[in-house]
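Minutes, project check-in
Item: structure for the 249-residue chain
Input as provided by the requester:
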Amino acid sequence: MTIKDNQKVFFGKEKVSKSEKQKGVNEIFSKVTSNYDLMNDFMSFGAHRLWKNIFVKEAKIVKNSTILDLAGGTGDITKIIQKEYYNCKVYLSDQNSSMVNFARDRAMNEGFINNTFFDTSSAEKLPFKNSFFNHVFISFGFRNFSDKDKALSEIIRVLKKGGTLHILEFAKVQNKTFSKIYDFYSYELIPRIGNLVSRDKESYEYLVNSIRTHESQEETCEMLKSNGFSSAEYKNLFNGIVAIHRATK
């Protein structure tokens, strides 16, 4: 085990070991599976649905692509891809089995099961062969990885040469006045709403704090480049509440 393996990482606002974060994240998402989409509605004012559509539509997907929806959760990104690009094969992977089972049931019920495959595995140890995917998408999951460098190494491995990593994630708000309003909403209101709706204030507090301790847009770009991507860029949405990062192998 290297020194890097023993480094502490943020779990919410606390620093813990990477294995503790992985366990903690898994426990939280097991609890919130049935309310996950509702949580995203609260945390984004419902705008996450628009952001995800922009995220996919600007990705320049061509037909017959092979795509990984990593940390795929309840399947929002997979559904958009399959509805827009039905010739593609999409592999939804998440470390949480409850999420994967929910996404599989949803795919069957909502009609996007064809050419969709489901896998339970962590981003730090993917079960796919080298140079397998044209695209890897991560939607609001990157900040929850227990070891981002290791996950990026795995993503580089499974991407084809010239393939693209797409990350949609909460980011650093660019306007100071708006940032204060957003902070009040995030810290004061979201946990209270979460407690009223699902009796689960702690999970909402974790998700809010995980946004605040996540890397900035520029830091994420540097991380992508330092882990082997030939280029990395980002685009802010809604004044930087979220950002889309794209990086090429």
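Outcome recorded: The mean pLDDT is 87.
No further action items on this chain.
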